[in-house]
Amino acid sequence: MCDLWYNILEVVLVFELLSRVSKYIFIALIYYFLFNFLKIMMADLRREKNYPKETGFILVEENGKKHMLFDINTIGRADDADIIIDDPFISSKHALIAKRGSKLVIQDLNSTNGTFLNGKKIKKPVRLKENDEIRLGTKKFTFLRGETIGTGDRSYLQ
């Protein structure tokens, strides 16, 4: 009978020890997940802070689709282009629109079919003006001063 009590007491003590240890392990896991969550949040906040500034200008396609322009904008068919245009006559990296001072310039990136500004093929960087018409492949765009619509996603669809 005494051995039975010792066995029960031993089981209770082992259970109590496991309970205490698991409690601290659980608390440590909570802190671990919290730490990783905060680390990811801080990385996202830092990335947002370093995100390119908007210029206040937009490109409007003939179909009305709008693209907010940033300090540097690559236009082309490639997945890593800032403005992706699905047109077989547009090169992977077709053109670049970049901020120079307070103005924006457009530059052809040695595309196959060229970049046209107001009907003329451009060979060097050219300053963009309000209502300029840009043609890349079969697509036409109008360059306008736009409302700033926030940072984050680089494609603004209407």
From TrEMBL:
Transmembrane parts of this sequence: 24-43
Domain FHA positions: 73-122
Top-rank lineage group of the source organism: Bacteria
CDD domains, per database record: FHA
Transmembrane helix among keywords: yes
Entries under Pfam families matching the protein: FHA (PF00498)
Keywords: Membrane, Transmembrane, Transmembrane helix
PANTHER family: NUCLEAR INHIBITOR OF PROTEIN PHOSPHATASE-1 (PTHR23308)
Protein name: FHA domain containing protein
